[in-house]
Amino acid sequence: MRGRGGGSYGRGRGSRGYASSSAHHSQGPGRGGEGGGTGGRLRHPPHLKGREIGLWYAKEQARIREKEDKETRPKIELSPSKRAKITELLGSLERHSKASIPTGAAAINDSHVMRRYRQNVESNVNAAAIRAGLRPGDIVGLVRNSEWDESLKNDLERKQSSPKYQTMMRFREKLPAYQFKDEFLKLMRENQVIVISGEAGCGKTTQCCQLILDEMIQSGNGSLCNIVCTQPRRISAVTVAERVTEERDEQIGRNSVGYSIGLESRIPERDKGTILFCTTGVVFKYLIDDPKLTKYSHVVVDEIHDRDVLSDFLLMILKDLVNLRPDLKVILMSATLNADKLSNYFRHCPRFNIPGSTFPVTEYFMEDVLLQTSFTFETNKRPQQRRCRGKNPRKSEDQGKSEDQKFKRMLESHVRKLERDKTYPRHVLKELIKPEAEELNLDLITSLILHICETDRDNGAILIFVPGWDQISKLSTQLQSCCNFSGCSILIIPLHSKLPTVNQKEVFSRPPSGRRKIVIATNIAETSTIDDIVFVIDTGRIKITNFDLQRNLETRDTEWVSMANATQRKGRAGRVQPGICYHLYSKARENTFESFKKPEILRKRLEEVVLQIKTLNLGMTRPFLKRLLDPPPYKSLELAIQRLIQLHALDSDENLTPLGFHLSHLPMDLQTGKMILMAGIFECVDPILSIAASLSFKDPFYIPLGLGQEKNVDRARRELGDGSKSDHLTIVRAIEGYQRAQSQNRERDFCYRNFLSESTVNLLMNMKKHQGYNLCGALSKYCYC
Length: 785
Ligand SMILES: Nc1ncnc2c1ncn2[C@@H]1O[C@H](COP(=O)(O)OP(=O)(O)OP(=O)(O)O)[C@@H](O)[C@H]1O
Prior knowledge:
By secondary structure, the chain is of the alpha/beta class. Helices cover 50% and strands 11% of the residues. It has 5 domains: 2-71, no CATH class; 103-134; 146-354, P-loop containing nucleotide triphosphate hydrolases (Rossmann fold, 3-Layer(aba) Sandwich), CATH 3.40.50.300; 361-380 and 399-601, P-loop containing nucleotide triphosphate hydrolases (Rossmann fold), CATH 3.40.50; 665-782, no CATH class. 37% of the residues are buried. Mean pLDDT is 82; it is low at 1-39, 97-108, 382-387 and 389-393. The site of adenosine-5'-triphosphate has 20 residues, from helix 10 and helix 11. Keywords: ATP-binding, Helicase, Hydrolase, Nucleotide-binding. Residues 185-355 form the Helicase ATP-binding domain.
């Protein structure tokens, strides 16, 4: 915004830097005027001697070069009319609030932006008023349509006689969830809220919604049934919808089943007797227009153990909604939930555990892996990955050390017991006790894959859980360059939340015959069914966001997983046949795992949370947050409000500004969102999207192993930067250069010469596209329609 007053973005910054250096030099007598470029020769101050004189001249030359450099930099001069327009736009984005919208004033107040903003504020106020005004017993849900009841019933009966439906039904009937159908439906009929648990794969997600829908249709109540089932991730919403469609012998979006994952939707064509699988964010979009969710009779919150911020919000809204809508049923499900806590939150609602599992999964721990692979750790090798510390990497050095000591004692006692029991040979125990056994070791994973290839001739697919993109990328390179997999040809598929949905879906495709599929994924795969997975390799690590309240700092740390994560991971094997799960940590390490990770709301900055509350008009932030299942600390809320005011997303009375309103519709962190919105105003969206993508993900440069390589990478960066001295512009140029090279089919060479990770550049380009869609989506939906 520096350009606003001065009209020249580059100049404002440059002149400030220059002023400070000239102040320093003005003490020296004999200077030939500002900048030394007076036509006269530079003269050093007379009191300097010997080496000091040389140093003085070197410093002066550097200063002159810097000044010349600044003068030759491109400057943006804005015409007075453009400057006025931008100033006006910025002002309108940052100033107006619900409380202070002036009517009929300047043209800007009648713009599309302002009209949509006002409309949203008004409709939210109305929605909140309706919510507050509703009394228990008021009928606000679905309205019966007897014709529909009849036609849905006939349609289901017809379908039930189709051979495909019957084949699928034979499979469904074997699932534990189906076998306990009567108990489940009875509980459902008699209660408004229930909590369902059951082992991974027992059929909660695919069966419970169908059981409800079919019972409603068969009992002549089909027109009163629309089920919305939330999933924590886009990929699981899509795959579950596809699976359920298949089980019902239907077409997705054409009959009873559909999905919606933000920008991509296949909503059922009929509007009664349906099941919609969606991400939690989508329900929030519905809540904006329909705060009582009147279109739905049942809300199923699946994988509730995930406890992301939106799910916690949803729980709180549902807690209010069940009072206002006695006809609304709520089902909370997970394989690994804290059933007591949830039940207490919903006034001690009943819990139901579905007993039994589908296929057995054999578990192996580090000690077994070392035995099977005969792997030995290289003690003096540089660690491949930083060690994960206990449960909480943010602990102080002392706390960390004492935790390490405690664990060491625990491991030693575990090893002594194994020694006594003679369960494992001595050489395995020698390896197990080494500190390296606690590190994430890609060589060990490669050895284990080799072992699987040697022992399993059926090419069963392997799913490997790693903490982040770095490990996905390094491991794929390592596996690809390793040609000896016992004659077994492999197909590597990465799975990361930053990949576009279309790439994420590749993990479900079958490999060509004779090839073994290896999926390398983050915890995003914890809730999906990849039906050909037989082996799971769990490194036991997870990347997690933590918020240090004292330092007001949000970090991404690699930590040990919780038991809930480990159980979910194990559950990805054995979905359609018996499976094997290899945990790359010892049984002793597993004993240190906490049951669940802290809910996200306690680990995150709250700016986005506050903005959501304001956008949905859920009332005052402080009382709202207090009613959550796990209320966040007061101080973190204060910090969030202060930061939102600084960003002009809220005004000083904590009202949402138009800028805040737009930011709340951009699914990215607020500063990045603001930068992208501003880029729209300054007409420089493309380069800013490159910068935004790299800031939200990572820098595409890598430093290869080997002495002196840092210098080569620096040189490549400088050359790409073309004298800009800006890391951000260097990344912009790297991506532009890659695109140019791609059009000439020499992108590999370009990446190799410039130390760029091709997979990261590709991911950044995809993120740019996605953020671009988000920007268009947010603007077209909320500004111009
Ligand atoms: N996409 C699919 N392809 C093939 N079989 C599937 C698919 N999805 C589910 N199944 C089968 O249906 C069973 C039940 O799956 P479902 O997702 O309902 O289990 P769940 O109890 O919800 O488990 P989780 O909590 O792990 O998701 C699986 O064990 C598997 O056998």
